[in-house]
Predict the structure.
Amino acid sequence: MDKIQLRGELEELYADYAACLDDGELERWPELFTEQCRYEIIPRENFDRGLPLAVMRCESKAMLADRVAALRRSSVYGPRALRHLVSGLRILAVEGDCIRAQASYAVLQTLPDEHTTVFNAGCYLDRVVRDNGVLKFQERLCVYDSVLVPGSQVIPI
Amino acid sequence: MDKIQLRGELEELYADYAACLDDGELERWPELFTEQCRYEIIPRENFDRGLPLAVMRCESKAMLADRVAALRRSSVYGPRALRHLVSGLRILAVEGDCIRAQASYAVLQTLPDEHTTVFNAGCYLDRVVRDNGVLKFQERLCVYDSVLVPGSQVIPI
Amino acid sequence: MDKIQLRGELEELYADYAACLDDGELERWPELFTEQCRYEIIPRENFDRGLPLAVMRCESKAMLADRVAALRRSSVYGPRALRHLVSGLRILAVEGDCIRAQASYAVLQTLPDEHTTVFNAGCYLDRVVRDNGVLKFQERLCVYDSVLVPGSQVIPI
């Protein structure tokens, strides 16, 4: 398949992912993953050392949906506005149906009556597959540079 | 029309828009809109509640040009450097000649001898039409997450 | 050549450039330039006035490699995580084999146990040429809006 065409399709998937989290369409977020999948949020230091300590780990779409339900029950998600900026998409390999790609991201956060700040920045390391013609995440690792505020419930990045 | 091709054309329009505001080519900014148009800067809270309270509203290219002239007379625009980052373009619908699209943005601001900070972040909600072969904004709503500094003159986002 | 295709190829080059600097693959960074090249980091104020005072200037791939070696000997690069966000690519002209393009960038920085902040923002002004079929930078000017922290060694942007 044409690489520039594939780039465009991946950009669409990444934009859709960000919109789910930023526009409060949290229930649509797990739909962007395959049934069996891997979603992790990992501090860069652990990732670089090969340590398997993630602050969030989900291994199926059902686990992602559980996480969404828990977030809806808590009040952690509502009062802040999030804004994902994604940049620097690279297609690393296309192996049959599976695409390995990465991109940099920053999540900006605006708390009520406060200035907008950088909440989290890092890179996405992805495996994307075509599932009935639609691109979905089989694996998304969010390897973050930032300090995550201790004590707060981890939200999807 | 091919969707990936259209994505590329929209990316060009968005980049041109950002460059007008960042490179001080303010007079070229209204040229990216159709004669009759709608440009609004709206706090997210108002937008979500359906309240029509915008901090800036223009309904024609002439009004946009008036706004530029007013900014040039004031000293609000000059001493700060602005930098738009736009990400997550989504084509929501193509209805005949009209394209509905959205994207996330962050505007960084650098005041003299100060560190760069996030001035404003939010999303663009757009209607774009082809006008003599050139894509132009028929409508751009800037729905912002951030606190706008009270008292300062509102600048285009 | 098709402009949307060229946009995609440039996006790939820019993403590769950012990844070199963010993922610590510093030695690969000079490889993205032609043998004779021009790389400068210039404060916006100087650039706007036509002053030739750059905080970093390299005129060949060899000089870029020297700079990388010096950074590796110092400890300035290691302890911080950098994250480039690039947006608003514009192809300004295609003159034979040479493409003039520009884009906005922000470099986020995370120091150990500190929050992520905007380290530097500005625009890239580029001349890109096709070298044995591969796009390379013949010239990259990084014109920055931000205050660079005085006293620290200048790192590639």
User: Anything to note?
Assistant: Strands of chain B lie at 33-43, 56-60, 81-95, 98-110, 117-131, 134-144.
